[in-house]
Write the structure tokens for this entry.
Amino acid sequence: MSALDTRYNTEQAALMAAVERRATDGPDWVQALRQRGMRIHAEHGIPTPRTEAWKYTPLRSVAERSWQAGEAGPAVFDFDLPQYTESAVRIVLVNGRFDRNLSDVPRLPGLTAMSLRDAWTEHPDLVREHLGQIARIEEHTMAALASALFQDGLFLHLKSQAVIESVIEIVHVTSGQDEVFAPRLLILAEDGAIARIVETYITDGDTTAMTLPVSEVVIGSRANIEHVRVQDEATSNIHLALWETRQAGNSEYRSYNVAFGAAIGRTDQGIDLQGEWCTTRLDGVVVGLGEQILDNHTRLDHALPNCNSFEIYKQVIGDRATVVFNGQIYVHPHAQKTDAKQTNQAILLSPTATINSKPQLEIFADDVKCTHGATVGQLEDLPLFYMRQRGVPKALAQSLLVYAFAAEVLELISMEEVRLRLEQRLFERLNPTNA
């Protein structure tokens, strides 16, 4: 055991005690999930740079801080929660707990949105079939810790053939200092369901908490789901997320990961294409400034023939920030006629900014079309010069050019109000003096 491992075990006595207390909460199968998470995290602990997947994302500051297990909701806020659309279904979770007072869930045919604790009581068979079955916590020790700690979450159920016209907004609020919260999300879209979801993670002021979300998404046959995830927490917070999806045949899942916040922010996103004729998008926009460390690991797993997947990640890195991208496409031997395209592009706004990019294609079928490309560059001087000549301040000119770079991803979002709000937030992030 290394000195860091010993320090971690000593510093986290209170956190581990809370894990043991919570292990017996809920029905037997929920207890089994918590205990499984506890065993995995006890074995692996917090990743170190010796762990290949965490080579460029040091967590020493996380391991050396004394953490407390935060209690799920409620909290009092002195700010307005973000709202992307006027007619949306709004669901608010505070420190991982469904808050009925802040949420607005109208009665819509085919839609159920409820606390995960209520769901495992009212729909035990349905929740038991999927909760903890999609997320690969054996491969993600921080998600294992989240599975050991979680108290509540959201169960979003789109019944067979349901068509939800309203955008479904999910807002996760974290409020705490040196506390760990584990929001849990289970989305079940049955056969033929159609919906659009925007999910946002924010914090109450400059928190120093650690958010460990685990999201499990099940997409049924012929379902069509668009899912935008926005991580905009305070740049003093830690955000380490696992987002995994299982997709059935003839379905379409379009996912967009937008990362602006956190001191250390990482999302591991995996999509398993487990049926024929799937269409999948896995795209991202990342903006890292100051001394942020933002890491995105993606995995597209093609198990069966005739599926299409498209991935575009755009990253903007300035100041002394570090951004990591690891994109894996795995094509199984039976997945003939696969069409998989991956593009990763990064702009460095500063000579002290860092990008670590690692595209991975593992192809075990011979009748496929698979491509990937990774580029790193700077803003061109000539367009910046012409904009400055016309009186545009440098920071604003830079943000306009960066938006043009990121627009390829943002313009793919079909929800106009969501897209416009993200464009505005991108300008604010790049040019805060003119926000």
Observations:
- The radius of gyration is 21 Å.
- The chain has two domains: 3-275, 381-435.
- The mean pLDDT is 91.
